[in-house]
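Handoff note, outgoing to incoming analyst
You'll be picking up this chain. Sequence as last confirmed:
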Amino acid sequence: MSTTSATDSTILQCVKDETLAMTALATLLKSEQDALVDDDLHILNEVVASKSELVRKINELERIRLNCLSNAGYQQTLDGMDQHLNTSSDEARLAWQELLSISEKAKECNHTNGLLISRKLSQNQAALGVFQQGSATAALYGPNGQSSIQAMPVKGVIVR
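Most recent structure output, in case you need it:
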């Protein structure tokens, strides 16, 4: 096996590994979406830990693929990958298209989850607003993250 075909094979394997990891992430994001809709905090906590690990793994796999591209004489960019694919097998081009497709699905799911989280946050802030109506301290926390509730003397109580 020549160095070029060994590099091509390594890059193809990186793309396949990235696709597996990205598929797992897309599945996890769908689970997160279901948990957000169902208000399942237990599942959400599990998803957060798993999601962080998968994103770390995907970043590492991408770094390895980009290093392989560089070693093969291509730029570590999408253009470099496209140039590599122009001289690669159909299998490599199909694997790359599959990775791009699943990445797009994961991106859309992540965007939807962000919208769900924003909506939940707005609902929670509105609920807090109801509790705080008429209060001299309208916000529980200030911009610095510290509590803005201060002890207020209770009117009509005699302190001895």
